[in-house]
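Here is one chain, start to finish.
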Amino acid sequence: MTTKRSRRHNNKRLHHKLLFALVALAGISIAPLVLVTKSHAHLTNVALDSTLLPPTISKMNLTGDSLLVKTDTCFVFWFGPPMEGARKEAFEKMKELIEYDGVSVQLVTHDNLLSFENPDSPMHPAALLQPGLSGVHVSDYLRGYFMHNHGGCYHDVKVLAGPPKLGKLFERMARNESIYLIGAKEGGPDDVGCDGRYTLSLNTTCVQVGNKWKSLVSNGMYCVRKKTEFTERWTTLVEDRLTEKYETLKEHPSPVPGRCCHGQDTKGYPFYWTELGGSALHPVESVFSDHVQFGFPWYDRRANCRSHVAEDRPRWVWALSVR
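Its structure:
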């Protein structure tokens, strides 16, 4: 006698056979996927099962060598205490406004971070070290890593003035392969970050970077084409700096989990505020300015003021609405 359980099992097997038959007809090669366990101690080869993956990885390029998130995804990073209050409200409203245009929003936290790792291009161990980098610096590094390996959009948690209509930006990028980066025009020369040591390897100077501020975009939100020379230079600069200071980081991790270090006692922590963010990104942007375009709308800057609620008080310092 056939039980309900066995019928469900047979139906599932039939579904899989039909799926593989359709894939074969389409000429797509299904290679085993590699999922990384939370312990990061070993890799496990598993057959395709979209139920094991985060929502935005359920549709991916299966012919490549990595987990490739669909390109119309906007990533948001959060590596602090659970969102609450105005911060949570801002994220939920931002998600609603971005997804209004058909672009999915993926929140990345410590809980699901490793599911986005490209096994052929592992994340730098500094990003996984605990205690180690401040939450802000983890986010700064991962922006480059995600944009290089997955592409798509990145956005700080901000109060938006309205739907940003990012779908049009993805369409523009799809039509023109020379576009590497679409962002919001930087506010002024004082908003430009630059590290002189980064510029040495880019054959430029911080003076030259500053003079090109009108062609630079903000570090807080952008759409990026994956795996270009631009993203390669960006991630290489930051990962080389992480490697250089990794041993010091293990001895002197961030004194606070979130915002360090901006007017705080660093206690030997080896990274300054913008070292892994704008001070690396803006010099690379300046070199590839012919591939940078504007069009990403600014958030509501009047609404994004610093709050002084509990999550923003020492010793655990977090910005409620601005970085």
